[in-house]
Batch of 3 targets.
Target 1
Amino acid sequence: MPNLNRDVRLLKQARALTADQAEGFENPFVLGKFMISLSSAAVAMWATPLAAMTAPFATIALPLNRLYAYPFIIPALLKLTQVRVYLTPGTAGSVYRLGVYSSSALPPWKPEALLWDSGEKDGTATGYQTFTLITPLVLLPGVYGQSYQAGVASPSFYYGTPALLPPIGFHEGNPQIGYYKITAYAALPNPYPSDMVIINNASFHYHFSWWRLELP
């Protein structure tokens, strides 16, 4: 049973650190460290999905007609208020959707129920695109799926490489970093399709968004 009082205490301790001190904090509900970027006495945090991502980041066009889901580790009781992506360059005529899914309680953390659908977004502009959740999501400690789907044309998203072990592990020497389902572009399905495919290749691309997390 999660100790929510302890989780809140840990988060308060972490957000009180200076930016130089804030390398992350330990939590027994996830493996490893949750690396976060903090300003001094921050009220909220923009967080990346894994313990660490390599830099500099690069961009790659998101393939059409594929619904992606990548694990996002939440180490404490937190509230998701905004989601941000970075597009470069913007692509004429492109549209896309973002989503958040719950995941299975145990590895390999398959995406399950749809928790948030951004609706269709314009992928023609270059730069950060930030979306505010009308109703913030209160997230218990665990693993969630950040989801993407492109339609009409392919917007170019930031991607990175997890600097630690991939979230789903390895199979025959290849990293397993997420899931996809080949499906026509539409409103995100609920639940995530059960006949998903594991992303398993040496290129190790991990499309990601930033999540703005706050105390609930």
Target 2
Amino acid sequence: MSETSFRKIWSFFAATGLIFSTYAFLRTTGLSTKDSLAVLQIPATSVPVLALPFEIGVLNATLWLTRIWTREIGGRTWAHRLPILYFSPADVDVGTRGGRLYQAFSLTLTLVAPLLFSMHMLVKLLDAEVWCDVPHSPPRATGLRGLSHFAIVLSREVDNCSMLRLGEIRGAEYFSWEPWAFALAMATTTLAWCGTLRRVFWSR
């Protein structure tokens, strides 16, 4: 695959991760979705459990492609070891001060911001109110929220729940093990993120 093709693929995943994670972050603040991204036409409290898997997946794809670039193509400086977002090398000379500033801006948008937004999603998920969907009876609040999410799977509070609901009585359904899985995935992604930045800044 040519460098140009690889750069376009990397830019696609990087831009997708940035746009989706930014939009999901704004949705948790109550932003209206009247005219865009109908997939997120859902209550703000339900966004974390639905958006987080996609955010983590796209971010990991971007990190993986970045590591491949640093290993296969690389360069003499950190700015060369990061693919140029959107533009071509003819448009952005990463050997100049302006080029390095562009690369720093690009790194912040494509690698730093999506990670922070994903962490925000995880915090919102763990801090949400938990509702128990009991068969043949109205859903009820379990009284569990925050870090107590990690106790839900062991709690007798949810013994009779068919599903858990996030944030409100008709919020998104999810299983009791999902917060554990998301937390583990986020920790793994953070380690991968640290390893990728190490390759970008300290590879020889």
Target 3
Amino acid sequence: MPLLLTKGYKNNFIFNVIYMSQFIKLTSMIINKNLITSVFIKPNKYHIYTLENNINGFMLFGSGGVDSSPEKIVICGEKSPEDYKVISNWINTI
């Protein structure tokens, strides 16, 4: 985790360690940046795909199948302009 050191001059010389955020804070959720697999940029909309959280499967007489699907988060500029701005700023820093 990257560190940012700042100096303070209260009561002699103090070093404050601030951990840089590994999360994106939106109005209704917090997204872990490490779990994002892809972001599709569309006009006035972002589609964010994260790692699979659910795995479904079945077993029948020694054989079966497993299926998983990524979680999709849609950020729309018209419905949530604050979240759209946060994601836009994050994408521009990459």
